[in-house]
What does this fold into?
Amino acid sequence: MGCESPLKPKVVIALDVGGTFIKSGLVVDGELQQASCKQHPALADQDAEVIIEQFISIFEDQYQFYTVTLGKSANCTWNIGLAFPGPFDYQQGICYIQGLSKYEALYGKNVREVLYTRFNTLQHKEWAKHLLQADIRFENDAKLFALGVSRLFPNERYISLTLGTGLGSAFIDRASILNEGPGVPEDGWLFDKPFLESTIDNAFSRRGILRLAEQMGALEKGMDVKELAEQARNGNSLCCKVFEEFGARLARMLKSYVIDYQPNRIVIGGQIAKSIDLFSPALQKGLADSSIGIFTSENVFEHTLIGISRLFDDSLGFN
It folds into this structure.
């Protein structure tokens, strides 16, 4: 798509597509424009036309922000990147989400083609005419968070985990996503691998930590991870033990991957990363290798948008 010129700014309209909200922003020549960052309702349980129209309205909104609010010329290289949950054929742009009460109406649809078709019908409008020339790319949200973090550690090798409603993972080597190789599970995905009597996803997610708290007798009615962490920080020894056990189990799960992959550090993001102070000591102790750093970020969104922009850095092999 659009021919590239070194004189033209490279503008990426980046969308982090979640089940409840879609977060969007502009990345111009690799720099996130903080003022452009917005949150929109996802409408993920609606029919396909409503979902697509929501995407289109966000693209238009960000185009107008760049050209009107920032007063910039539309004569630039436009790109559109979407961090999307799976299952999804990211290369082809086809959605395979089913049974998750979100984006099911897009099942089997080539989202890239649908978006180009919509831009085509709207190309009598200036913004749609420009965005019709945009390159549209997709990738897994957890992988794009990890890729965004690589800006901080461009020469490092690390395993990235996002811990929240589920577990996302990525294996990064010098700013490239690895989907195979020594110590790398297929597609870099750990969520479906066995752990104890279940899966990694069931053990290292919101439901996993709450189940652990229940088993250890620390879970009280109405408690979520946030309340569990508050109790631990207030000196509740039983809640402290839950996080210690969570960290120890996380180390046990990671150990074989650390041995085979030899990362410089472990990167942890997501909502549960807010409790890192409670489980990091046990995690570090369990890994038994003080040379492995642990980097945490609650700001998954900004790293993800930077990661989305890096989809268009062809030196990283995404073309």
Q: What stands out?
A: The chain has two domains: 10-133, 153-298. The two ends are 11 Å apart (CA to CA).
